[in-house]
Amino acid sequence: MIHDDQNEGWKQHFPTYHFSERDIALEEYSVAAKALESEERVFLNASNITLVAAATLGSLAVSSTENLSNTLDSVLPSYSIPLALLLMVSLFSLVSIRYFADRQRAIIFASRKVVTLRRMLGLSYGRIHLVLPNWRIEGADQPLSIRLFPGWFTYAAYPFWILLIISSCICFLLSALLIKSIELSLVSENSVSFILLTNFLWITILTYTFRSSLLDTHETMRLLFTKFIGSFIRLPIASNIEYLVYRATLATYETDRMKVSLTNLIKLLVFIEDRGFYQHGGVSFKAIVRGFLSLFNLKRRSGGSTIHQQLIRTLFILDLKKTKRRKAIEILLAPWLNKILKKQQILEIYISSVRFENKCFGVIPAMNYFFDSVITNPTPAQAFFLIERVSNIRQSLLANKVIATAKSAVENKVLSQNDLNELALIYKDAVIKGSIIDHNNSISRLVSELTN
Q1: 430 part of a folded domain
Q2: Where are the bilayer-spanning segments (predicted)?
Q3: Residue 423: Cβ within 10 Å count
Q4: Percentage of the chain with pLDDT > 70?
Q5: Per the domain annotation, does 360 fall within a domain?
Q6: Which residues contact 106 (CB under 8 A, 6 or more apart)?
Q7: Cβ atoms of residues 134 and 249 within 8 Å
Q8: What pLDDT does residue 212 have?
Q9: By CB neighbour count within 10 A (0-12 exposed, 13-18 middle, 19+ buried), where does 441 fall?
Q10: Going along 203-258, which residue ranges are E strands?
Q11: Would you say residue 187 has pLDDT above 60?
């Protein structure tokens, strides 16, 4: 799990900024700060106006409904007035909710811009919020720490609660009047249930509309649901999803900056870890069944995890020890990852950020660890070796697995015999160097099997 910039297992170069004319940046910062102040003022004024308008509309709707129905009884059906007012209040509430969500987005984006410019100008209040909170713009050191949806009980949600409470009361009263005017025995006999159901549906619709309007760049309702499930089963999922996706994407830029070719690495990654990668949407049900059968020794031992699931495990899951619960969360989040990122991006992020060995996150640290240098164009044998090391936290030489997978690669024309000869030397050198531990003294057998 990647925690922050200071994690020793997760380092890459960040963009640096230099201004020959700092006045330009200072002017941009001034404009951004004024825009933020203006957006906050608009938000506050709109909240006050909405409160007055909602209360007035509700009072008029409830007090005049019966009089209007009696007046227009000869022209319109008795249920038309409460129904029309109910629709009008609903439409007003939904439009207002979307408006406030849009204003909140403008405020957050302006806040993030201010923090970004502050960092570009070299000003930082530090990571530890001893004086200023680092999750608010006053002390934020990282733009994405300012959430698009700060919470249900923050200032951003006040307009939502105002509209929800007032519109729910109006909905309750208008529903009662509507039932009174409708001559249906089924509805009349279950009037209380009908009113409660109507209000419940309305609260659900309004809540969903507000929350879905404040989804961040990579957020979806599936992600929110999975976070709720994770909290329920006591398997926490990282809260700073946007930041982690940003950091993982930045790692791919570092790999590109070092001019490392990913062609062979991607080819071997898909072959070794997830051969159906391009066919499934994040979850391979065949792999799940195979992994389940392996528990009963009916199939060769297999984890059943796709590349999507492995990447989710590395980036977003905080507790890896709870295996069964972790697998459930991985399966729930895999389609989300497949939706927010393209297949090629997932492969590049995997290679650039996943754990290749204990304390080696990403292929560049792994190359430095195993080969003492960054190899810009790894051979198929080197790529096989690196991918086989993924998540091998015990640094063990798994000879049987290596031999079986390597021979399968030859049968599928992914590797040649010359590649196997090179691979045998790589493993032999790694064991001699001590970067791989041969617990069972099986290196001789591995070299013999691969070179014959």
Answers
A1: yes
A2: 42-61, 81-100, 157-179, 191-210
A3: 26
A4: 82
A5: yes
A6: 39
A7: no
A8: 93
A9: exposed
A10: none
A11: no
